[in-house]
Amino acid sequence: MATKAEEILKKVKRIEIATRKTVDTLLSGQYHTRFKGHGMQFSDFREYYPGDDIRHIDWKVTARTQLAHIKKFEEERDLTVYLLVDMSGSGQFGSVEKTKNEALSEVCALLAFAAVKNNDRVGLILFTDHIEKHIPPKKGQTHAMRLVAELLDFRPQHQGTDISQALEYYAETVKNTAIVFLASDFYGTGYQQSLKKVAKKHDLIAIRMRDPREVEVPMIGKIEFQDAESNEVFWINSNTYAFQNYFKKTSQAFETQLETCFNQAGAERLDLWTNEDYFSKTVLFFRKRKKR
User: Are 86 and 128 members of one domain?
Assistant: First the structure.
């Protein structure tokens, strides 16, 4: 009988195999096109020539060699990709084949494999209303496999959601500019200012996973609900006009609020559904992004 670690490894390998073709397609679409602030990194020293920027003179090397030398810089070719993934209780909901967390983990796996194949560093922060785990960025397929295993097997210690805390932690911890994928269902409040802060410096892309039952409740009479984050249990009568009207208005208000929040922050958003081909939709998103 296979151990738990062996079962997780099999799942990771299945996802890696399933995403290979999509990863190649994603890379051809340049998933980090329009990345903010490609930096310049030190490359070497060379002798100073008239017309060179004197601000680049290295005085220590100049003193040692008795000849003026300047620092050479070249554009950074590899990037850092960070996955900030919401592991709160609401992500455990699913009315189709997979829960929101399971589907979101597969999309994040796709991005991790694409990053390392492009020789980028990739890091992972898992959060609820606490920072649950932080794995610093590294390169390599082995590292990507580890991240995917964490995504698939992680069991959070808390159930609530605090997106603002996760963004603030990221902003304080990660100093270099990066591509940030914020993956959540975004059932939280009070994170607009933190969103603006991170989006101002980093290339921030929000990935939202949704379930079809979150936008439509069937008219089947009394239904027992349990809040996945607070564990509160309550009953509703889905047959009534009052409930259906309230549910529709509340959903529309939330969508408007969410759209305003991301537009004002200058962050892009990709909405995905658990019952669709979210890999293909992710590729399409980056193809459109490349053209802008």
Answer: yes
Q: Is residue 154 within 8 Å of residue 175, measured between CB atoms? A: no
Q: What is the DSSP string of 204-254?
A: EEEEEEE-GGGT-----SEEEEE-TTT--EEEEETTSHHHHHHHHHHHHHH
Residues 177 and 50 both lie in one domain? no
Q: Clarify whether residues 218 and 115 are in a common domain.
A: yes
Return all residues near 16 (Cβ < 8 A) that are at least 6 apart: 109, 113, 145, 148
Q: Are residues 57 and 185 in the same domain?
A: no
The model's pLDDT over 129-160, given as tens digits with 9 standing for 90+, comes to 999 999 999 999 999 999 999 999 999 999 99
21 Cα distance to chain centroid: 21
- Could you list the residue range(s) of the whole structural domain that residue 70 is in? 40-75
131 three-class SS: strand
pLDDT tens digits for range 253-274: 999 999 999 999 999 999 999 9
Please name which of 201, 105, 209 lies closest in space to residue 155, comparing C-alpha atoms. Answer: 105
DSSP state of 275: T
Specify whether 242 is located in the same domain as 120. yes
Per the structure, the count of domains in the chain is 2
Beta strands in the chain, from DSSP E residues, in sequence order: 40-47, 69-75, 80-86, 121-127, 131-138, 179-184, 203-210, 222-226, 233-237, 268-273
The rounded distance, in Å, linking the Cα atoms of 264 and 180 is 17
Q: What is the pTM of this model?
A: 0.80
Statement to judge: residues 15 and 121 lie in one domain: yes
Looking at the structure, tell me whether residues 64 and 148 fall in a common domain.
no
Residue 266: how many CB atoms within 10 A of its CB? Answer: 11
